[in-house]
Model the fold of this input.
Amino acid sequence: MPAETMIAPGFSDPVFQSQAAFRALLAALSEPGTLQNVASEIAPPESLATATATALLTLADYETPVWLPEALRNGPAGAWLRFHCAAALVENPAEAAFAVINGLADEPKLSAFNLGTDQFPDRSTTVIVQVAGLEGGSVLTLAGPGILGSHNIAPRGLRSGFTDELRENGALYPLGVDVLLAHGEGLIGLPRSTQIEEAR
Amino acid sequence: MYVAVKGGEAAILATHDLVAEARRGDPAVPEISVAQIREQQALACARVMNEGSLYDQDLAALALKQSQGDVIEAAFLMRAYRTTLPRFGSSEPLDTATMAIRRRVSATYKDLPGGQVLGPTYDYTHRLFDFALMDEGGEAPPRKAPAPLDATMPRVPDILGAEGLMEAEEPPEGDPRPFDLTRDPVSFPADRDVRLQSMARGDEGFLLGLGYSVQRGFGGTHPFVGEVRVGEVAVEFVPEELGFAVDLGDVTLTECQMVNQFQGSKDVPPQFTRGYGLVFGHSERKAMSMSLVDRALKARDFGEATNYPAQQDEFVLYHADNVEAAGFVEHLKLPHYVDFQGELELIRRIRREREERLAQEQEAMPEAAE
Amino acid sequence: MTIHQMPADDTKPAYNYAYLDEQTKRMIRRALLKAVAVPGYQVPFGSREMPLARGWGTGGIQITAAIIGPTDTLKVIDQGADDTTNAVSIRKFFERTADARTCEATNEATIIQTRHRIPEAPLKPGQVMVYQVPMPEPLRRLEPREAETRKMHAWAEYGLMQVKLYEDIARYGEITKTYDYPVMVNDRYVMAPSPIPKFDNPKMHMSPSLQLFGAGREKRIYALPPYTSVRSLDFEDHPFRIQSWTQPCGLCGAGDSYLDEVVIDDQGGRMFVCSDSHYCETRRAEGHRGTMLGDAAASGLVEETTP
Done:
């Protein structure tokens, strides 16, 4: 079967669907911890959550190299991303502007991605972490810009030690990756500016 | 109740009408046509195409008509239109060695293959008014068939290069796609592709002044015009679906290569260095100024001091763009009364406090006033 | 080459929604996301050439164009007022290119694009402020070279700024910066708040609304997420203070707003009125009267209407 016939459609109305999705992404990263919905009504390719696929359709293009786990890169998700975004799929995590990882997979670590440079911290990777759920897990307490006081989240399906990785990433501030947790149509932003503690 | 009187919108619309009226001038005088501007003000059109970064003689003429001949306003119109155009791709690199020459002069050799071709130039005109041009309807000068030129017209720096005397200019490793300063923000130090692009769209007067400053010692290069050539060059494009080059048409270009004092070190034998200028249309002054400043901006590459404005990429690149410069200078016309009020409040208070302090001091020490 | 794309008589279909093409919006949106992730840091972006002049709000316009959608309501102010010429012009631009719903009421707006002021009415969660920025670099007047100021930010070397402010104190007894007064954001980056009067600086601190800053000519975007610490630089012995006036607004009697000075005759006559035109109107509609309201009507500054 030719690859084209397997590629799921992208936005039916790119101008307004991407605008709405962007506002959800902007809210996610400017108000860390809040649950944002990207109800863009697209059918994502296999292995990508609707929120992940919508975020990539909204933000990625030929100027932004994307890192996907090898199985996704060589599967329908990779073909879909190449077709709709014309994005280059890179093997080296440090070259990626955007990356998608499975929350339970061991590799790569957050520190393997582009962390930016001291003069250009904006050049770091934005990492979309696909998780098993955005509620019902063990509680993390967030503080920092965008948060009045503190805010709790409880994502499910994160590899052990991931909170430490997030904390180490935050310690690099203003360098570091920015993280989006994705599940279904939901997104939670964890920019590098957010301080994260495991609640007791 | 009371509401504020709002006149902003009506006032703005009125300015548009007034501009239209001023543009037309005396209605008893026939309106100028875009074709007349294109054909009879071609050098102004070339400047608008350069500073507007868009090769289109008709649009340049339209821009000049719409802006009442204000070249910077015309360039602004071109740029604002250009930025909305979809991009199909990039052309193949132009080959100026294959230029259909109209004019070609070299100051470094008395004669050379292809010879000196004076072509159309104001260089030897006496700047005396031709009052006959006050009247219209004069006979158009007869069109002479151009004298056939030599088929070979090598570029002078290539002649020097063949002898190993000219600094070699190799593309950077991997021959990457050139930077596009209309799409990406510039960072410093800027590479040569960025510098040349910025100067090609830069203000002619600004570059002329900087080039002149280099000649007068604020830069210390010793230039010779290796060559100035003007003529038509074919633009070719390879569409993805065809896979071979298609001729899109010709553009008129002016290229200047300035030969500069040689450089050398223990490891590299002395050789001449190059300053390069390439611009749209017949624009010799711009191409020459650009090549002077290009050489000055190479100072860092050659380990020379960078003490003067023409040698400093940030200074040249940030300030050469006349559309940006004009916008920022002219924005001072916008209301600033909120900030000015802050200054008024401060200066009145500082003066008041100062007077109070002086009065107290005088009271405390009356004898000091003697 | 004569392949023109001449716009048709009705120029509307020739341009994309909100003027910018989608690729450009993506580029700006990516810059915005990095800007909110590193509050106060200036993200370089591929600022496009706009049909309005540089210095006239092209940075703010590009941000608004990249975020606005059909559910938004846009307010545009210049000097605090909705009816100043540049505000009118920018509002028209979005009405034309994005069919934008516009308003003057601060509390009705979802996006407020501004030049030189923050509205007096408190901002709300969910609102977005878009500031037009002429000079995004707070250190530029101390160090003209971008290559140097970028390093100073990278290493958080802000000693030069402290020295400059202290020199002011030594000479005048106080810091003489009255607008574009530098702030420290999230204890990391010194940031230019744009030329708002320092009167407005405290409104930025822990604001519930998202604040975005666009410098078109200088090609920089930066941001303050809601609830972000924004501290005006000062010294323990010379704490930051804002402007104050000895009299209230002549039209609405407000004593808590930033005032503009209006010269009313050539005998030194002055009148002070709210710079935030909507705030002043709202107060007058509520029945507040300043001492000079009658005179202002007589001189044509305001109109008396029958409700």
Observations:
- DSSP finds twelve helices and five strands in chain B.
- Chain B touches chain C through 59 residues (CB under 8 Å).
- Residues 337-364 of chain B form the longest helix (28 residues).
